[in-house]
């Protein structure tokens, strides 16, 4: 049998169904399904995507297509009891494109096709209105010329305006049949003039041209670009829907409208929509007349409304989803023109899914699957009020979502001072460094000119759940003169700006924001996710406040508590510097002894906040020079002093400091003297931290809290590093526990963030009781990418050129980094089958990466507190997609 | 049967043999073997290492040991026809330690044991000299007290000097029997005074004490430290040799000496040694009397000499090696006291091995196995004359071997200028950068205060085969004032120093050096190695001169020709900078067009030098900012100008340059915008290089040379990077070949230097025709170690603390980096079974790493020209040790 290229629908029966979206497109499948359900749909037929693909490959229709169109057209004529081109009783049709995925740039709709000077007469007679017929004709010419002939819509609008002026009327509706007839003539003249053709009169020619236009629009530049951008394959093709016209503009008992089966903004279970009386679809879109709410229809035309309600209920029950409907009623008779899954806000999506479970429409698993974990990010941060009118002055990378507004300041101390004075500020920096932490904490939001999605500012801001826009290269920051410029605008200290961390927009002035809500349905959905997921969810939290927030969001422990931020606090930094500048161990220990009680206090509060849950504390990680002034700044200061005052004493002091900074200076600090290397060379530093942890844990235990400390060793590549530090931990733990008589269950583990740690995981697991993959650094070393350097530089180019699909610091690179993770997991568990394994890089809060973590058999993920709900949901998604306990990614299995 | 703890030797038959070194130690096994060969050896017995180990574990002798010693002593008495402690005919013995591996710090030798006031009389009578007997006794007391009782040797010397003063004599020999008797009394008094014991008189007690002392010396701190340092297991234990005394000091027909069966310095096949008449062994060591050459013995005592010749020939033939002998003749009768493999210079080792093959003593394979590849390094560079008297003022890392002397200069331009003026210079820098290349090339040697074994200075110097000492942190370099200080010394520009790149010594003044010789035997040995090895050997060479040198040393091609050095030349750097500062592609291309002919010339000469051999050319590797002035230097210059002159124009110029430097600045340049990333983002840069390669290759082919170009893409982590650049290469190659009509065989490959490239090697091999492992960078990313930063900082500490066994930049880390190499090889060959794979990191010239490369199945190694001979030999060693084609390291197989 020959391939079938055309699918008919009409008279309660369709060749297709809702499951044939690939072949019939979304629109065609919906029309077929509705027809089969007995819902009133104007009959018609769908030309398949395969026909389109054939056309595109071969430059002509496949054999038999024309005949099939002919046959289906005849069938349509029979069903409609009208003739295509029949002067007495003309059949008019609409032609619409309909790909599987809807796509801007595709040809949209041509209505009233089949009209010409002759059929016009029949239409007028049947409708009982000559004016209606001419209005339909001028609309057809306008649409056809625009969409099929590629002419400008505005040219026709101008012509119509001119006529209205001549006739001295204001509204289209005031034009008479005669006026419209005149207009039709002028439109045809316009076509002749601009396109050098007579406007086609043969309905069949019109149809052929419209079908070709749909096919061709598949490859117009805008559609191609859209597919490129959204990774939609180019060989899907589009279907073409040819459907008998019904008219919403046949008088006051006709109309057209759109509706959602539930509120798309809130998710509330109420029928929601708008309509226009005596109008065709385009009038709604054009926005000239204000549509009425559907409630009015209930009053005005209760029968039509009641039919519509019956239809929407039938459809929603059938599709088990919130739907978007297009309808028309012609002389009181209802027709559905389209149905599809309705677009909704994240908030609505959650409410609808939960409600539908309660209504028995869908299962909990289906409800979970329907919520894209990425989307719920917007439920957790304040948002720019979508109704607000805004002036976007620049756009950076959307580093940490939410919206915030405040007065611009340019230094961290300024931020703190202004906030103390009761102001709200946005901290604007070239880039941030750990010294800026307190200022970042004080500010409402952070804007940097440099850095990428995992730059210091971005990571810290996400950890704080604070709105942040980074890498905004359009702005030129002059920190010295406390101003930044963008194009011709100058923004000075104290000026108000608003940041949108979800879009990266930098907005002038103060904009209203909407606070985040964690609604009951959201919490309920997440509790279902918790029942399903296998992965544990922890949070990265460095402060008691973060810890509390994480717990509130459902974290089951802290997976990463960084200890270095604690040393940047104002009173501690000088002691830290004293420790670093110490010439010998004794002096170093003196400084450390001063830090010990402070560090202990930090841990006490975190342990209390996490009562009963495990807390993984990482020993000092960054290189020591991060705690000292910058080399270049010192060098410049000295040079300036030398050239001017000659204050020899000060020069000598600074030179001495410079010498130490010089000695600690590193070409590649990321690969330098940091992490456990510090503790191996200066065990007294680690010892202080370990002692602080145990003293805090013991004290808090004595106060009645349950503490589960887990000590994590960072940046290791050699099993002996772990052995040495574990010995130290064991010794200090023993001392502190014996001294107090309080014995704690604690464990010692490692952060796996270097390729060597992955491949030697079997050796490391002899000493480590848990692994936590630090995939930020692991991505850096596996790719040889410095995240500080590449994100602002060539990463974007790499994505544009298709070298990378994603930023690997945002989405875990399964093939490379993931394979090393897999090796680490397998080898680690070979030595210690019950090894607990997690991840605490940025990827721990990213859905696709969480899926990988599930597949590769990790025990938990840890992410910033604000991403905990996302991670809970994503973990449930992963489990639903890969239900087996360990369901390794294919490429990994193939390779080894 | 009980365990045997004591092995007898004597009367032409021994319980042991040369193969029992583990049990009897080196000395005991040698004595047993010589006895079995019928060579005159004073009889005796060896207490096994097992007895020592038991003693150490249990704090007492094993059961039966005392009895065995007793029995063997009786047997010795019988053989010697003397009695231990017999007053008439006393047996005296020597007691010596003898571990499997000789070790400083171990107890050495006690002679004349068995003497006391009574046996002394018998000895005097038998020797016919009372003076001899007293002399023997005072020597015994001195040695025993020093070695067994732990007293200071010098205390006894002082006593003797005092006596000589009292007796008003100058020489020991002038002391009479009576004087010596007096001395014995004083010695005993000294022991009583210092150790509060009477000097032991019972021979058996003396023997027991001496044996215990040997056992205990196994664990004295010096011996333990030595074993730690040299990775000798602590549980080997030492044997104890108890042997009947023979006396070289029994008059003018007695004597003692040492000999080598061949010349240990040159390897010449001549009997070589020294002796002293009327002396005991210690007299030779003490160096008080000047020994005579053995030729004299031939004249003085031809029979003894002839016996010695017979013995040495017998032994050398038996051991098939050059031997070191200790002998004594007592009243004209020859005894051998020890034999072992003789220490020799590298030069001698090579000559002896080759000669022995020709003499039919050993096979070629044995000859090769006997030459440690590490040792031949010293045959390839000038050496400090070992006879020279030197003043070492500082010690750095021995970065590139050889010795050189010259006048100190502190900048590269100074180096060039002074050399032009006909001077020889040593370039002293804080650290070097690519801009210093010309100065390094001009200098005789390079000294830096910073940097490790793979710092810029070290790598470049080794490539140039130039003497280099780096990381000499004792010196303080003041480049501005053109001086450096070390301790209290100041060395200024123009002062002479000498560097020893093999030891790291910095020597004051001019020291004589010995030029390198590549002798006939050496070349012959290497040709045998070539017959055996499976690995190909290539060289890393960036200049025609390097290429020629590499070829001379036996390289079979160039495995790495770096192209970046070419852009640092004086006339090119400004054009390079113009290219980098270009605002758009057009401007960039203009600069590149100027560089193209220059780059082409570079390649022409290299291709000609390597006529008929493959040349692997790597595309531009370093980040672009390396070609610009340093950020800090500019910032300081601007600050100085601002503070003084206010030359606004200059400030503005510099500020503009600073902006660009700022834009290109990287936190971690090692992980930044470099390697193929440059070519992906700016294809025009790669295009210029590729065009230069093909134009050069085509021209040189037209001139009749055979060119085999291999283009290598650096620093890649993604298969798409390779695809994009390979497409570019293919296109340019096609253009150039079609234009000229000359068609070349060329190949395109990659440098595998990132972990991601290893794990995705299967994808990469779709495009790459060869892999070359860049293990310098791979070590950096696998360990997360920046070689620039860690070598001067914590690496040394890591080795001291046993965290690392070696510097992983010198010796390839098999377990971590090696495992990634293995994964890369396996996955690469899975896609492309005939994939050619090499290594071009520093490890390519390091013997243990070469062994790994052989095991893991690489096709070739590439190293600096001066290491090519080492690599040839090491590759043969590897093949002899692992003869199967692919003989994977065990741990790798176990893991996956």
How would you describe the overall organization of this protein?
The structure is a homodimer of 896-residue chains. Chain A has 896 residues and is an alpha/beta fold. The first copy, chain A, has 35 helices and 32 strands. An 8-stranded mixed beta sheet of chain A has the order 13-23-22-15-16-17-18-14. The first copy, chain A, is elongated, with a radius of gyration of 34 Å. Chain A starts with 5 loop residues before the first strand and ends with a helix. Chains A and B meet through helix 22, helix 24, helix 26, helix 27 and helix 29 of A and helix 22, helix 24, helix 26, helix 27 and helix 29 of B.
Q: What layout of secondary structure does this protein have?
A:
The structure is a homodimer of 896-residue chains.
Chain A: E1 6-10, E2 13-14, H1 21-36, E3 44-47, H2 49-58, H3 65-80, E4 93-99, E5 109-113, H4 119-127, H5 130-147, H6 153-167, H7 177-195, H8 203-217, H9 221-229, E6 238-244, E7 255-260, E8 272-277, H10 281-286, E9 292-293, H11 294-300, H12 302-319, E10 323-330, E11 333-341, H13 346-358, H14 364-370, E12 383-384, E13 392-395, E14 397-400, E15 403-409, H15 412-420, E16 425-429, H16 437-442, E17 445-448, H17 456-464, E18 467-470, E19 476-478, E20 483-486, E21 489-492, E22 496-500, E23 505-508, E24 513-514, H18 520-532, E25 536-540, H19 544-552, E26 558-561, H20 573-581, H21 585-609, E27 614-618, H22 631-643, H23 648-664, H24 676-681, H25 683-702, E28 708-713, H26 719-740, E29 747-752, H27 755-759, H28 761-764, E30 770-773, H29 775-783, H30 787-790, H31 795-800, H32 814-831, E31 836-839, H33 847-855, E32 860-863, H34 868-881, H35 890-895
Parallel strand pairs in A: 15-16, 16-17, 17-18, 25-26, 25-32, 26-27, 27-28, 28-29, 29-30, 30-31, 31-32
Antiparallel strand pairs in A: 1-2, 1-3, 3-6, 4-5, 4-6, 7-8, 7-10, 8-9, 10-11, 12-24, 13-23, 14-18, 15-22, 19-20, 20-21, 22-23
């Amino acid at each position: 049998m020959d391939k079938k290229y055309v699918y008919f629908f009409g008279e309660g029966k369709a060749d297709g169904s809702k499951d044939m979206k690939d072949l019939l497109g979304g629109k065609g499948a919906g029309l077929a399904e509705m027809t089969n359900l007995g819902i009133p749909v104007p009959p018609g037929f769908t030309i398949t995507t395969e026909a389109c693909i054939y056309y595109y490959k071969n430059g002509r229709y496949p054999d038999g297509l024309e005949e099939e169109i002919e046959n289906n057209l005849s069938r349509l004529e029979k069903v409609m009891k009208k003739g295509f081109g029949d002067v007495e009783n003309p059949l008019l049709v609409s032609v619409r494109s309909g790909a599987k995925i809807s796509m801007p740039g595709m040809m949209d709709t041509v209505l009233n096709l089949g009209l010409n000077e002759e059929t016009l007469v029949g239409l007028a007679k049947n409708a009982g209105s000559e004016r209606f017929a001419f209005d339909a004709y001028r609309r057809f010419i306008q649409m056809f010329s625009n969409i099929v002939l590629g002419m400008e819509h505005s040219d026709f609008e101008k012509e119509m305006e001119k006529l209205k002026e001549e006739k001295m009327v204001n509204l289209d509706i005031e034009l008479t049949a005669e006026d419209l007839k005149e207009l039709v003539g002028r439109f045809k003249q316009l076509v002749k003039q601009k396109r050098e053709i007579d406007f086609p009169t043969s309905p069949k020619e019109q149809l052929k041209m419209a079908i070709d236009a749909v096919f061709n629009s598949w490859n117009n530049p805008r559609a191609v670009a859209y597919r490129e951008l959204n990774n939609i394959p180019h060989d899907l093709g589009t279907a073409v829907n040819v459907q008998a016209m019904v008219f919403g503009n046949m008088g006051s008992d006709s109309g057209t409208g759109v509706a959602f089966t539930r509120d798309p903004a809130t998710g509330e279970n109420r029928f929601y929509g708008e309509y226009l009386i005596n109008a065709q679809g385009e009038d709604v879109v054009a926005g000239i007349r204000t549509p009425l709410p559907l409630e009015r229809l209930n009053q005005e035309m209760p029968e039509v409304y009641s039919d519509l309600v019956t239809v929407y209920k039938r459809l929603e029950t059938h599709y088990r989803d919130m739907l978007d409907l297009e309808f028309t009623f012609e002389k009181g008779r209802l027709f559905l023109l389209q149905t599809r899954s309705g677009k909704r806000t994240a908030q609505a999506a959650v409410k609808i899914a939960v409600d539908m479970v309660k209504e028995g429409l869908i299962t909990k698993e289906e409800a979970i699957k329907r919520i894209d974990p990425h989307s719920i990010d917007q439920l957790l941060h304040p948002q720019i009020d979508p109704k607000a009118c805004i002036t976007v002055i620049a756009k950076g990378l959307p580093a940490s979502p939410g919206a915030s507004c405040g007065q611009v300041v340019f230094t961290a101390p300024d931020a703190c001072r202004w906030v103390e004075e009761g102001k709200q500020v946005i901290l604007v920096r070239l880039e941030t460094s750990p010294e800026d932490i307190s200022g970042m904490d004080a500010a409402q939001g952070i804007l940097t000119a440099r850095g990428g999605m995992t730059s210091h500012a971005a990571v810290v801001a996400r950890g704080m759940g604070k709105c942040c826009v980074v890498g905004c290269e359009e702005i030129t920051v002059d920190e010295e003169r406390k101003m930044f410029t963008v194009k011709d605008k100058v923004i000075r200290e104290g000026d108000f700006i608003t940041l949108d961390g979800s879009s990266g927009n930098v907005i002038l002035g103060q904009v209203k924001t909407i606070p985040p809500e964690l609604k009951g349905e959201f919490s309920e959905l997440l509790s279902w996710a918790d029942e399903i997921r296998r992965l544990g969810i922890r949070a990265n939290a460095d402060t008691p406040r973060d810890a509390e927030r994480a717990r509130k969001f459902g974290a089951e422990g802290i997976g990463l508590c960084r200890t270095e931020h604690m040393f940047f606090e104002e009173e501690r930094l000088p002691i830290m510097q004293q420790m670093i500048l110490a010439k010998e161990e004794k002096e170093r220990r003196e400084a450390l002894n001063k830090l010990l009680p402070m560090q202990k206090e930090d841990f006490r509060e975190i342990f209390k906040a996490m009562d009963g849950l495990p807390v993984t504390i990482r020993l000092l990680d960054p290189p020591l020079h991060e705690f000292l002034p910058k080399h270049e700044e010192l060098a410049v200061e000295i040079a300036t002093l030398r050239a001017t005052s000659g204050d020899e004493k000060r020069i000598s002091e600074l030179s001495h400091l410079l010498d130490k900074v010089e000695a600690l200076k590193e070409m590649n600090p990321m690969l330098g003297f940091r992490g456990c290397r510090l503790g191996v060379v200066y065990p007294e530093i680690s010892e202080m931290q370990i002692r602080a942890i145990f003293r805090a844990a013991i004290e808090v235990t004595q106060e009645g809290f349950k503490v589960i400390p887990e000590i994590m060793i960072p940046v290791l590549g050699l099993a002996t590093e772990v052995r040495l530090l574990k010995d130290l931990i064991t010794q200090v733990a023993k001392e502190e526990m014996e001294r107090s008589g309080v014995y704690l269950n604690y464990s010692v583990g490692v952060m796996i963030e270097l390729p060597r740690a992955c491949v030697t995981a079997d050796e490391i697991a002899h000493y480590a009781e848990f692994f936590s993959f630090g995939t930020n650094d692991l991505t850096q070393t596996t790719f040889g990418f410095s995240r500080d350097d590449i994100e602002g530089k060539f990463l974007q180019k790499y994505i544009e050129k298709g070298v990378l699909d994603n930023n690997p610091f945002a989405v875990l690179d399964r093939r490379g980094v993931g394979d090393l993770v897999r090796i680490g997991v397998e080898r680690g568990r070979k030595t210690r089958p019950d090894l607990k394994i997690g991840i605490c890089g940025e990827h721990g809060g990213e859905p696709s990466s969480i899926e990988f973590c599930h597949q590769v058999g990790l025990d938990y993920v840890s992410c910033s507190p604000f991403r905990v709900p996302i991670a809970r949901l994503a973990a449930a998604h992963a489990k639903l997609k890969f239900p087996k306990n360990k369901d390794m990614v294919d490429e990994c299995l193939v390779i080894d």
